Amino acid sequence: MSSSVSVANENGIAVVTIDNPPVNALSFHVRKPLYEALAALRDDPAASAIVIACAGRTFVAGADITEFGKPLQQPELRAIIALLETIAKPTVAAIHGTALGGGLELALGCHFRVADRSAKLGLPEVKLGLLPGGGGTVRLPRLVGAAKALGMIVSGTPVSAGEAKAAGFVDAVFDGDLLAQAIRFANEMVAQGGPFVPVRDRNDRLAATDLAAFDAQAAELARKARGLEAPLACAEAVRNAITLPFDEALAAERQLFLKLVSGDQSRAQRHLFFAEREAAKLPGKDLQRRRIERIGVIGAGTMGGGIAMAFANGGLPVTLLETSEEALRRGLATIDKNYAVSVSRGSLTDEAKQKRLGLFKGSTDYADLADCDLIIEAVFEDMAVKKEVFGKLDAIARPGAILATNTSYLDVDAIAASTSRPQDVLGMHFFSPANVMKLLEIVRAEKTAPEVLATVADLARRIGKVAVVVGVCHGFVGNRMLSARGAENEALLLEGAAPDEVDKAFTDFGWPMGPFQMGDLAGLDIGWRNRKARGQTAVIADTLCEQGHFGQKTRRGWYRYESGSREPLSDSEVEALIRAKAAELGIPRREIGADEVIERTLYPLVNEGAKILEEGIAARASDIDVVWVNGYGFPIGKGGPMFWAGLEGAGRIVERLEHWHGRTGRAIFEPAPALRRFAETGAWES
Ligand code: T1G
């Protein structure tokens, strides 16, 4: 027997144990011995039933994603499941941890599934730009019905063992010794006697399907797909389960899978899966982590309150400091309201809300931060204010406490230098709303100690954030590249594009919204304040702000908004303003197509990323992709700006940047050497 699969006989019940750390992925070196073991046990009279279990922290978490794109080695998962369904004796999957993708599909090949109460089960393939390719789109609907299966498969969201039992694809939920209870369950099934019907032959839940309702549900999901192919393929495969005989539906699933797995979108999404995990890895695995048990947050405004919630959501006690009792009360009231909204939406129980609120302690006295292990400030974005705060922290924080700034732009080295402990200082740049957005830029200052970085990277994971370590420069990685992406926005308007034409070029590309809609959402006054602080101007945006048109919050900005609506409506006065400014500046207007919009916004975005790589502000190109997908909504089907540059053709990007550089002379269009090298070699890193 191989080291990845072992077989034991527990008084007549065969127990097949898969052991392939870290997540028991169904790699080839698991599939082959697993197939052989099941084939032998099928006809083994000494085995009256078969239990499939896993060693380690989880049941099979899926096919081995690293094998995709390589020649398939038999036996494939579908052959194992087909073999399972020829076994007449009871087969039981004993599930703990996360039974995901091919792992759940393997379990669906068994007659029965039993699970530890804390287990989660799901088919997340859609998040990799795929669909369940091991029969999940044909078997799951047979147990839970087509509508429930469609929702699970298109969302890719796992469910708890209890939910799975209620839905009909787990037969028993256990506490305590899962294997012992799975063996007992198998014995009970043997005692009950067969025949034991394989899932493929269970059609009762399918027969009741309302196809019209299913199609309406699928159409609504398709509307939200935003150009992604996998959700549509998932819906088609589940529909086939309803309308086609099992084997035809299974064959159709295979064809849909093969098309997706070789496509750019799945390659992009699989790139992001590994990129997120790579970004979180820091040199020096054996670095000592510092103890983090209590968090201090300075500032209870939008950012501070959101950051405080992010830590409380991770179960950490928070001391929230404000300058006055009134400001503190307002901040805590906002936090309470935010949790109340989650409860009303059903995404949080009232009990959990009370538990989280119980983690907060309010104060207006810095001395109350003395017992905190990490203190982060989210005060006004002004260097003098930040330095004053860090001077106070230096005086009261316990030795070894980590001191973090949430600055979006400012020089973290300068902030660190305002303390006697620069080795304990770094940036933690959260994205608003901080309790929702996944991205956390961890800003490594020149003197930040390695174990401080490692401690904060672990802490980020603990609170469910996707962390990327970045270096110090104006705007770090995300905001610096955002400036490059937006540098041409007004020029495009003055030269002839309307705001909604630019935004449509972005949404057609796959962005959730374009830059002008985003500006109206965030508030034009934020950019206005930043520009004034840096002595910069934007002829159109500044005029809108001078008119008090800040976007949605004033119901006028780049667009008009009806009362109570977020729907952007073209504003003839804005278009007249643009024309007037163009005339004032003597800028001739012309038709501007979507391609030009992309070339003058997203190509500079990639180019700035290349410069960031050259300067060492980002450790790897894939880190930049992680920043842009998790912090700014870069379409996942394109893998992030640096991955997309490969899809778009770096040679073309260089050539078009040179064209616009020649035409405008603007630096954002001058191709970075790293981009030229990428165009020549196809690799960002040497
Ligand atoms: N294949 C290969 N490696 C995997 C893997 C997988 N399926 N899942 C995780 N890893 C690696 C990961 O890269 C990391 O490696 C280590 O395991 C720990 O992962 C036919 C086609 C299970 C919830 O999509 O969601 O089945 O960085 O850091 O936070 O229909 O891993 O240590 O070198 O994420 O505790 C479907 C993907 C596959 C599940 C655990 N399954 N994995 O989270 O650890 S496609 C998935 C996860 C499929 C079938 C289809 C998570 C996790 P390293 P980790 P974690």
From TrEMBL:
InterPro entries recorded: 3-OHacyl-CoA_DH_NAD-bd, 3HC_DH_C, 6-PGluconate_DH-like_C_sf, ClpP/crotonase-like_dom_sf, Enoyl-CoA_hyd/isom_CS, Enoyl-CoA_hydra/iso, NAD(P)-bd_dom_sf
Involved pathway(s): Lipid metabolism; fatty acid beta-oxidation
Domain 3-hydroxyacyl-CoA dehydrogenase C-terminal residues, every copy: 475-561, 597-683
Keyword NAD appears in the UniProt entry: yes
CDD domains: crotonase-like (cd06558)
Keyword Lipid metabolism assigned: yes
Localization of this protein: Peroxisome
SUPFAM superfamilies: 6-phosphogluconate dehydrogenase C-terminal domain-like (SSF48179), ClpP/crotonase (SSF52096), NAD(P)-binding Rossmann-fold domains (SSF51735)
Pfam families for this protein: 3HCDH, 3HCDH_N, ECH_1
3-hydroxyacyl-CoA dehydrogenase NAD binding domain location: 295-471
PROSITE patterns: ENOYL_COA_HYDRATASE (PS00166)
Catalytic activity: a (3S)-3-hydroxyacyl-CoA + NAD(+) = a 3-oxoacyl-CoA + NADH + H(+)
Keywords associated with the record: Fatty acid metabolism, Isomerase, Lipid degradation, Lipid metabolism, Lyase, Multifunctional enzyme, NAD, Oxidoreductase, Peroxisome
Family: In the N-terminal section; belongs to the enoyl-CoA hydratase/isomerase family.
Subunit structure: Monomer.
Name the UniProt record assigns to this protein: 3-hydroxyacyl-CoA dehydrogenase NAD-binding domain-containing protein
